[in-house]
Amino acid sequence: MLILLISFFFVVLIAPKKESDQSNLLITTIITIMKRLLLFSLIAISLFSAQAQKHTLPKHLEYQALEPGLDSLSMYIHINSYHKKYVELLNKSLTGTADTGATITQLLIHSSKLSDMARNAAGGHYNHTLFWDILSPTPAAKPSELLNTEITKSFMGMDSMKVQILQAANKVFGSGWVWVIVTPEKKLKITTTINEENPLMEKHGNVRGMPILGIDLWEHAYYTKYQGNKKEYIQAVFKLLDWELISRKYSVAMESEALKQLNSSADWAAFSKFHDVMKGLVMNMGKGEMTPIKSNSANLLTLAKALESEPIPAEYATEPVKAAIKNLILACAQVNDAVVKKGTDAQIKEKFATIRDPYKVIVASLSKKEDQFSHQ
Q: Fewer beta carbons under 10 A from the terminal one: N or C of the chain?
């Protein structure tokens, strides 16, 4: 910025009237250099701004293009008051972080590492982008032969699938989404998420997978035209779904690296269960709450033993991880023993602290594996 100001000062304020004048040769040379610096500075600022604003609002249809199914007012509000805001918040929350250059898909797959603002904004941006992608005023009515075969196999046909989508959507209380996804096992499944979460995310409370169809269930998507009639709104969306576009998404999902990542991150179910309980206990003890660990010490020990008794995925079955599991079981046993013998809070805390080192060894092993995927 200093170079930019100095360059501007020389170029604009000190520029000689006649650059050919020999008395101004030195100043002319300096001005030439400063002009170049000014140009380079502007280019650098432009590139920096482009990087900081990596995520952008996608090109969308005209607001009235999907009428009468989706009215122009709802579309205008939806895009400019909601989707646009998610994009702005996402860029703001990622500025200065290691995730600035990550794709939206990678952000969501590793969403547990994001701040709450970034996670919510990333979900909102991805979800709406997919929604706009699959809608058309002149939609293709039939899926590809490949997708149609899988729909028949999974849902007993298109009509039956639509009924099941409606049923799933009606169970969403408040804001959320209903999805058709490709699971890590490459099967089709209907699932739902709340708020702006989606099936790519970790710990969203439902099955993970690659979305190929998503329908927004937030009231702002349909209230202007349909008020509280969610069923009528979804039926209108069905008529706008472009099955050629959805079929393309299905083909891409079936071969995507992201699907492989979901499979890798979901295949150690035993540790996922232990991790969920452990994370909650650490948070509670950090607040000085001892009741949770006293109530769950036996369960924590059972989950730790399951790490040894159940198969360990090959990519994690290293000697350091196996040794850490043994130490983890021993530490959990000592915690449970202290609870059973009604030890003091200080004694229980001391024993609980011994869990952390072996636990961190296992977490580090999983993190290294995820980092390998995230750079592919």
A: N
The predicted pLDDT at position 25 comes to 62
Range of the domain at 37: 2-52
* Region label for 48, one of left (φ > 0), alpha (ψ between -120 and 50) or beta (otherwise): alpha
Give how far Cα 211 sits from Cα of 89, 171, 179, 199, 258, Å.
23, 19, 6, 7, 11
One-letter identity of residue 166: L
What is the C-alpha to C-alpha distance for residues 135 and 234, in angstroms, rounded to an integer? 12
| The pair of three-digit structure tokens given for residue 344, joined into one six-digit string | 């003091």
- Pair (78, 170) in one structural domain: yes
CA distance 126 to 120: 10
CA dist 58 and 292 (Å) reads: 46
Please state the separation of Cα 256 from the chain's center in Å. 16
List the CATH number of the domain containing 310.
Answer: 1.20.120
- Assess whether 162 and 277 both reside in one domain: no
Domain boundary among 210, 231, 266: 266
Look-up of token digits 């929604």:
131
Who contacts 21 (Cβ-Cβ below 8 Å, separation ≥6)?
none
Considering the domain architecture, whether residues 254 and 271 belong to the same structural domain is answered as: no
Strand partners, 235: none
**pLDDT, block means (10 residues), the chain with 376 residues:** 46 47 58 59 48 71 88 88 89 83 87 85 94 94 95 95 94 90 91 90 74 93 87 96 97 88 65 83 84 93 92 80 95 96 94 92 68 35
Q: Are residues 208 and 119 in the same domain?
A: yes
**225 vs 152, 221, 239, CA distance in Å?**
33, 9, 16
